[in-house]
Amino acid sequence: MGEREEVKLLGTWYSPVVARAKIALRLKSVDYDYFEEDLFGSKSELLLKSNPVHKKVPVLIHNNKPILESLNIVEYIDETWNASGPSILPSHPHDRSQARFWSAFVDDKWFPTLIATTITKSENAKAKGMEEVGEGLLLLEDAFISISKGERFFGGEVIGFMDICLGSFLVILKAREKLKGENILDKSKTPSLCKWANQFLADHTVKNVVPEIDRVVKFMREFEAETQTRA
Amino acid sequence: MGEREEVKLLGTWYSPVVARAKIALRLKSVDYDYFEEDLFGSKSELLLKSNPVHKKVPVLIHNNKPILESLNIVEYIDETWNASGPSILPSHPHDRSQARFWSAFVDDKWFPTLIATTITKSENAKAKGMEEVGEGLLLLEDAFISISKGERFFGGEVIGFMDICLGSFLVILKAREKLKGENILDKSKTPSLCKWANQFLADHTVKNVVPEIDRVVKFMREFEAETQTRA
């Protein structure tokens, strides 16, 4: 009998980037112990020790060694449990480079722009930001059509790297649409991406792994009320 | 006789991130055609067509397919010419995740902070930024000691992913030290990193691939004069 591997995940239930690690672990059928962090209260000793540079979640701890940054964790899971479950990154170098390119677009440009529209108090800046978010979705629609080649996901018939990257933000997107009556993912503009989003959220590796939209709506409402009281 | 592979690199001579692609191609002994872009004048049709989203260099074009983003290009080169030359990323998943983590730290945090100190007109902001740059170098000194385990590079006895990532900025760092009389890489504070920097710049895969420091000093001086005239 082999020794049981230590796999720990430090996260918060509402974090989309923590959901990335959870989905990847689920795709690879890896058992793990989950530790909920309180980022508004005090962070755990384990988090501070494991991620002294950024002190952020997610942190994956595998046999005592921490792995940091969500997409880095997803790649680590893919490489470590490579014999188990589907490959998360595509196998051909060019397809891999496309998955990494679009993931960087989502993380460095598209999502930060969306978040900035929530934070800004200027109506002008918000309108300009939402226009950029919409333009980004058009680019992602084209990328999806080109990469998926008629299959269900960016990764083909199963969820892959870029699905996890963009898909992890869908719950926040849907929660925000519900909270503010917005229509960010618009069926008339990005039909393929809308279909992909529904398929992603309904997939058995995602459905019970990401938080419920209504719970996130409630969390966002409380968070907004809290920050407005403080401001 | 096989068909000659098409490998094109679009870049600018002074760009540190373009140097990353050049060093990786050199490590793998890949022949390529280089195209100098004029980012201050008009960008080439090939650049606009290959990178319509960001319109930035470097772009690697391999058999008609563009690969974008410098570290993504380095990974692509490592994976595509995997049988040629040393492996650029380490082979163990945990070592790979460390290389990716510290590279993200350099690209997303450390280098942008250094650049911000050049741009800001506030002496306070500049001093605070330079303090953060120094703290970042202390973290990188510790990371180097832990990762290199007494060998010459982050990658061991040969240059690897993290060497290319951080090392590509050394010419700009040295040029700035020369131009402003600063001492950013301080032997008394980060002795291992200073030794690493000299070894990196003297390595045969780097020496004639990165631009000469004096040429970059001249370029920076002209660029500063130009922007001050316009301001």
From TrEMBL, chains A, B:
Location, primary (coarse class): cytoplasm
Domain GST N-terminal: 5-85
PROSITE patterns reported for this sequence: GST_CTER, GST_NTER
Keywords: Cytoplasm, Detoxification, Transferase
PANTHER family with a match to the protein in the record: GLUTATHIONE S-TRANSFERASE U15 (PTHR11260:SF628), GLUTATHIONE S-TRANSFERASE, GST, SUPERFAMILY, GST DOMAIN CONTAINING (PTHR11260)
Role played: Is involved in the conjugation of reduced glutathione to a wide number of exogenous and endogenous hydrophobic electrophiles.
Name this polypeptide is given: Glutathione S-transferase
Organism per entry: Brassica napus (Rape)
